[in-house]
Design a protein that fits this description.
The complex is a heterodimer of chains A (about 150) and B (about 500).
Chain A: H1 12-31, H2 36-65, H3 77-96, H4 99-113, H5 119-140
Chain B: H1 3-7, H2 9-12, H3 15-33, H4 39-46, H5 55-72, H6 74-80, H7 89-100, H8 104-137, H9 142-158, H10 164-178, E1 181-182, E2 189-190, H11 204-212, H12 214-222, H13 230-233, H14 240-243, H15 250-265, H16 271-285, H17 297-309, H18 315-321, H19 327-338, H20 345-350, H21 352-373, H22 375-383, H23 389-408, H24 411-429, H25 435-457, H26 469-497
Antiparallel strand pairs in B: 1-2
Helix pairs in contact in B: 3-5, 3-21, 4-5, 4-11, 4-19, 5-19, 5-21, 6-7, 6-8, 7-8, 7-17, 8-15, 8-17, 8-18, 8-21, 9-10, 9-25, 9-26, 10-25, 11-24, 12-23, 12-24, 15-16, 15-17, 16-17, 19-25, 23-24
The chains are: A mainly alpha (about 150), B mainly alpha (about 500).
């Protein structure tokens, strides 16, 4: 049975193996500037990663030749990408806009987007979480949070 | 040898240390009860918050969470047939049919009593076996320590099962991450790319949170879980003291405890295997095996006693040699490092009060399970299943950010954690094992330092690594661990063909 993907090279394990080879080879370059004893372990690990990834790639391609379909990494790619984007956006927002504003927006936004649609529940949860964080970390432990680069702080 | 154990006892009863265990057990049950969350994830998220705490408070929280989560996993296993933790799969076999018959409350009580017995047995095993083992390992020099690190990595890669190539890739990645930063001897930068934030290397907490907390959060948001709440509304729970006389499973508890302890000590095996083996053995020796799978309480007891009996015992190789038996134990090693406690023989010599106090906390955590998880509390914990997963996911995201940011007060660490999180998600989906990454990071620097020290002692001659009996035994064990599974597979295949 032929591989159902458009290209055998688009199989997740193949792509991962190629990615590891490229990145590990890139990291190998700076090892030439290190003393031999300093470079020993990192170079050994990087070469190991390259060799092992070649084995992984060959094994995966052999499976493709035998007609074995690769399992998809996710059944709902849009939700996964959306979740990643929201988490990264939250980190960026904390960095540039500040922790409290970003958190007050993110908790209900993430929960609403991914299926929890109770406005009262969202309000209560946001107040409890942000209030507890303020009471424990800010008030109780004097922990500093990002205040936002956009405001020059 | 055991006098330090008794000396550590008063410290454990300090109210802050004791309260930490209580809070940990409750938090652990909550985490274990939520499908998709695990003890590993909870401890990863917790570790950065423990920076400012006394070591025994932090370790008490971890011990409590570990014990609590192992039982908590039984709650959705019994009520929804969804194991809260991987170790609770075998609990679903008889727990769910019991819930369907309206005996969910009794099933959870059997689970909590069995979990407690398993945890107590495991804590005693840790107390009895770890001190003498640590005395032996105190005699190790640099070459032996190097081989212990290599043996530890090899064990977790090859005994974990699955694809050894993926295990090796995970370990290489972990060891590579451990060398980022300043060279410990010459001080030159390695792979920092001019970033001052990376001169001290990658903090283990950043890696732990990224690898173990971000992928479950993505899972929570990816797959909405609908619960009908039917079984949790008809638990039929009676007070636990009334239910105890109905539990006459001493043989099963004894067998399951031994199996769990033994499997916990073996690197890479873990609670799922212990629970399955205990369940199968109990069923095989049962007088009425035909009732198993249809709601036999002894099946729940067999699975739960074994998956809790591997908790503290997994720390025997972790505390004495620095080789964790399970993923949670690997994360706990990270927690010890955060408090400047290097796992290994020196831990017992330099910090006896803390390490032995930690063992007592495991014992008390196991005892507290019955008190906190019994009757009324079981009903409350069962209702946790109705918590909306997207809301839970969004709260964990916030906690992850606070935890990682608070390590050094800089956003750079948060971005680094997100990078590790993305790598962790890909690894998780492609079934690359994660424990070798953590172990690689813990043991990589340790192995390099001792390798270089041994080579200096031997004036650059690599044969110095093979010049004493202990090193040779460790080399032989490493070879056995690497070659053993392949030989065993070939032997089984040849017998099948014959």
């Amino acid at each position: 049975m032929p591989e159902s993907r458009n290209s055998r090279l688009a199989r997740p394990e193949t792509l991962t193996a190629v990615g590891i080879i490229v990145v590990a080879a890139g990291f190998l370059v700076p090892t030439y500037d290190l003393r031999a004893i300093s470079a020993l372990l990192p170079a050994a690990m990087l070469i190991g990663l390259i060799v092992l990834s070649v084995f992984l790639l060959l094994a995966d391609q052999r499976k493709a030749s035998a007609g074995e379909d690769a399992a998809p990494m996710t059944t709902s790619p849009k939700r996964v990408i959306g979740a990643f984007l929201m988490i990264v956006s939250y980190a960026l927002a904390c960095d540039f806009v500040g922790f409290y504003i970003s958190t007050v927006v993110t908790i209900p936004l993430v929960a609403w987007t991914f299926g929890y649609r109770s406005p009262v529940g969202l309000l209560i949860a946001t107040v409890i979480v942000v209030g507890t964080i303020w009471a424990i970390f800010d008030f109780g432990m004097s922990q500093d949070f990002p205040t936002g680069r956009l405001w020059g702080r | 040898m055991y006098s330090d154990l008794l000396h550590a006892l008063p410290d454990v009863f300090a109210w802050t240390n004791f309260a930490a265990v209580v809070i940990g057990v409750i938090a652990g049950i909550v985490v274990g009860a939520m499908p998709g969350l695990s003890a590993t994830m909870a401890i990863s998220v917790l570790v950065p918050f423990t920076f400012g705490l006394e070591p025994l408070v932090a370790l008490g929280l971890m011990a409590g969470i570990y014990n609590g989560a192992m039982y908590g996993g039984a709650i959705p296993a019994v009520l929804l047939r969804i194991p809260g933790t991987p170790a609770a799969v075998a609990t679903t076999f008889d727990g769910y049919p019991m819930a369907q018959k309206g005996e969910g409350g009794f099933a959870l009580q059997v689970a909590v009593v069995s979990s407690s017995i398993g945890g107590i047995a495991s804590a005693f095993a840790l107390m009895l076996l770890a001190p003498p083992l640590s005395k032996v390992t105190l005699l190790f020099g640099p070459s032996e320590v190097f081989w212990v690190a290599v043996f530890g990595l090899a064990s977790i890669i090859f005994l974990l099962g699955g694809n050894p190539i993926k295990g090796l890739i995970s370990a290489c990645f972990g060891v590579f991450v451990s060398v980022i930063g300043s060279d410990p001897i010459y001080g030159n930068d390695r792979f920092t790319f001019g970033q001052l934030e990376m001169l001290d290397g990658i903090n283990i907490v950043i890696l732990l949170v990224g690898l173990y907390a971000l992928p479950p959060v993505i899972d929570l948001l990816e797959t909405p879980l609908k619960t009908d709440g039917v079984n949790s509304s008809k638990l039929g729970t009676e007070p636990i003291w009334k239910a105890l006389p109905r539990m006459n499973y001493w043989k099963t508890w004894l067998r399951g405890s031994f199996l769990g302890i033994w499997i916990g000590i073996l690197p890479g095996a873990g609670g799922s295997m212990a629970a399955f083996m205990s369940y199968n053995e109990a069923r095989r020796t049962s007088k009425h095996p035909e009732t198993w799978g249809e709601g036999e309480p002894e099946g729940v007891a067999a699975a739960e006693v074994a998956n809790n009996a591997d908790t503290a015992s997994a720390l025997i190789p972790a505390l004495t040699l620095g080789i964790p038996g399970t993923a949670v134990a690997a994360v706990m090693l990270g927690g010890l490092l955060v408090h400047g406690l290097q796992p290994g023989p020196m831990l017992f010599r330099d910090n006896p009060d803390i390490v032995f106090g930690f063992m007592w906390q495991f014992l008390f955590g196991a005892i507290l399970l019955v008190l906190l998880g019994g009757s009324l509390a079981t009903n409350s914990f069962a209702r946790l299943l109705n918590l909306p997963r997207p809301l839970l996911g969004s709260v964990i995201i916030v906690l992850m950010l606070i935890g990682v940011y608070s390590i050094h007060g800089r956003m750079f660490d948060v971005y680094l954690m997100l990078g590790f999180g993305a790598i962790g998600w890909v690894m998780d989906r492609l079934k690359f094992p994660l424990p070798p990454v953590v172990l690689g990071l813990i043991l990589g620097g340790f192995a390099e330092e001792n390798l270089r020290l041994a080579l200096r002692i031997g004036r650059g001659d690599p044969l110095v690594l093979f010049q004493n009996t202990t090193s040779l035994i460790l080399v032989a064990l490493t070879v056995a661990v690497v070659v053993g599974p392949t030989l065993k597979k070939r032997f089984i295949d040849s017998r099948k063909k014959a």
